[in-house]
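#data-curation
PF: Archiving a pair of folding outputs for the training set. Convention for this channel: one message per protein, sequence first, structure tokens after, nothing in between. First:
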Amino acid sequence: MRILVVGGGGREHALCWALHRDTPEATIFAAPGNPGTAALGTNLPIAVTALDQLVAAATQHDIDVTIIGPEAPLAAGLADRLRAEGRAVFGPSQAAARLESSKAYAKEVMRRAGVPTAASATFTELSPALEYIQKHAEPLVVKASGLAAGKGVIVCVTRAEAADAARAMLAGNALGDAGHEVVIEEFVQGEELSVLALTDGERIVILPPAQDHKRLGEGDTGPNTGGMGAYCPVTLTTPALLAQLRRDVIEPVLREMAAQGAPYEGVLYLGLMLAPPPDGTPYVLEFNCRFGDPEAQAILPGLPKGATKHLLDIARRRWRPKRQVIAPTRAAVTTVLAARGYPEKPERGAEIRIPQDLGPDVVVVHAGTARDADGTLRTAGGRVLSVTGLGANVPAAARASAAASERIAFDGKTWRRDIAWRELQRAGAA
């Protein structure tokens, strides 16, 4: 088995780690990869959007299965290109990936499928957007419709903030093409939840749900980031809730995508807001067309050994799952170690020191790292490392993650010490 993982971040290192654990005899390639994936296989210096080179590499290295990690190559049609060459691919087509690459399109799919989501309107011109904002209740949310690397969602407490956000996107080109169309929607109160489902377009297996921590500071303060940590499992997710999501969200969306001639296969990520009791409705905030980051770093290590065979079988069109939900064998808490200045202007170049004796209950995943000419590991991005602690329950996993995060050193290390705080409160362990 020769497997190519496309991408170079924490999600892709976590995928390579899980694949290596489950199939140690497999030969793993990563493009472009990072120092973490280099320890598990061979890195190929190819950008994720260099589709011609990626297709050529799949042929050159006789790749059996390609797993596409990030959203950009999916939106660019890499899965289509590889399938046209007769290659097995895990990841949706370009048409199906519009569920993530266009929030306006995703809203239309949800409307047609009857999926619960926040009321919204879509705009490409500033004047009608401002007029809509002035009549909208506060708070409200302004979203760039296109891919904006985690920077396209702005929660606005006031109409004035929303108007500024709309001006920046539609008139100020703040997010480039991604912000030339915006979705303005009502603010939904509740608790966020990430639910990921594997699918071949018809069959569905739901992975253990996770909860992300998007704010930079402890207590969910400070600016939004790409994610400062995650944990899994989440006790809010009862079997009844997962059955409801399958019935009211996943199945209707898959039917609608098939009806539009864009059948969906791969992993479908549901970004949810659970309304507080007595409502309790799970509202869909967004869809992603790939594993979340940092959710993947919390979900994958806690899965039972052999779980990545689902990805390989979906890619090879031979998937016949025997269960509808995969339960985790262990709890996992992932703490992101970020660089000073993240998310706006992260500093690069600091030397990273990772102790070798962190123990069997810790998985360190590389994201924004690089080795210099003499082999020294250095910071090379905003989110530098993900530190996943494993345990019999979330409190134990949180202790393992925090202890290891404390011992890893680099100048400017920025991290939250309260990952999984809601779950710890529910467990009485905060």
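PF: Second:
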Amino acid sequence: MEKVKWGIIGCGDVAELKSGPAFQKTLNSELLAVMRRDGKKAKDFAKRHKVPIATDKADDLLKNKEINAIYIATPPSTHLDYALAALEAGKNVYLEKPMAITSEEAQKICKAVEKSNCKLTVAHYRRKLPAFMKVKALLKQGAIGKVLFADIQILQPSKSDIIADTDENWRLNPEVSGGGYFYDLAPHQIDLMYHYFGAFNAISGFSTSSNNSLVEDTVNGIITFQSSVQFRGIWNFTSSDENKKEECMIYGTAGSIRFSFYGDTVYLKTETGNEEFNFENPKHIQQPMIAAVVDFFLGNTENPCPAEDGFLVMQALEKLSGRRF
């Protein structure tokens, strides 16, 4: 394989700016086809982004011999079926997060990858954004000494600018999303904690729902890592605008690191003073990750986020929410 030739299943809101154009702008990458159940919208996407093929049938992409990789950007309820079908068709897969609606489904995907000659990467794209890479570098160089614990607070009103706005708010339908806004946002945050601190040791949590909601709007949990790092997190999606907050703090024996999951600045506080590191995120936020995925598919580098990592994050979501074990 000299070039990764993509088909997108689900060319909706996420693919519009965050990811779709990046497949065309990445070296050794080409976007050949897009699919959406609404054929007119698929054709509109294809016309605006200069994609040769548009269709309302996923099979058209899976049976296309020129396409060697599939980006699955549909809601989580269809991730399992599309991932299995793509692997069966001999396509490499870039799979949106959360990788499924349950850890059982995620495990099925992992087993399918093991049996396949194809590759799969989960779209935890923050791993490749400069601000979060800087945090990892600071931790690795011991900038705050021995890491002791981390604290995440995500307090958001029900209408929040960090939650994607869609025609149908499928994120609040657990049969489609798996578990509301928590399942939509927390995978990125929990994945970064796993990426920074290593394997989980134990996870526990609780959740509540208000106004007869089918999904959690408050989740409160703790994690211990095998590295001895401790973690606590609170997610609430009924907060007032006055209480709105979105922050991660990492504390060590010699200082602390503070950052936002939706920002581009990292703050370092040590005994010798304070430092601020500013970064500029790419226009298409997933482009650095997509570039890493392309290199992986071409055999030039390791997997930037293996299926097993996505599975462990799914397990963590379930344990933190206290709904499944």
